[in-house]
Write a structure and sequence with these properties.
7-stranded mixed β-sheet
Length: 119
């Protein structure tokens, strides 16, 4: 598995959701905007732990659809979390042998671009 290169996308996650993805329990990431399909590195706390291929986003348009997908996204609430909610299928997860540090721009949330190591 190659290390991230300048400009690669990093999907920023909380420790809980990163752990669920790495354990192969969570296969659908939830976001409030469409993300382009393709490779993303998975990061948390200024470190990259894996890469994944994200498939085309799924528009989640109602509570029934949201609840039906719960086994994949693992979010326990019955209400949609965003005005526009999208599920991003996680495909081909590859964990890095060693976490790679990255510089997290101040105030950035959701997606950041790899801009070198912080160490």
């Amino acid at each position: 598995m190659a290390k991230p290169q300048q400009g690669d996308r990093i999907l920023v996650l909380t420790p809980h959701w990163l752990e669920q993805i790495l354990a192969l329990k969570k296969t659908l990431e939830i976001r409030g905007s469409k993300l382009k399909p393709g490779r993303y590195f998975l990061g948390c706390g200024g470190r990259i732990y894996a890469s994944a291929i994200l498939d085309a986003p799924i528009a989640i348009e109602n509570v029934a659809q949201w609840v039906a997908l719960r086994e994949d996204h693992k979010v326990k609430t019955d209400a949609l979390p965003y005005r526009k909610t999208y599920g991003l299928p996680i495909k081909k997860l590859t964990q890095l042998k060693k976490a790679v540090p990255y510089i997290h721009p101040r105030g950035a949330i959701g997606i950041v671009r790899y801009n070198g190591s912080s160490r």
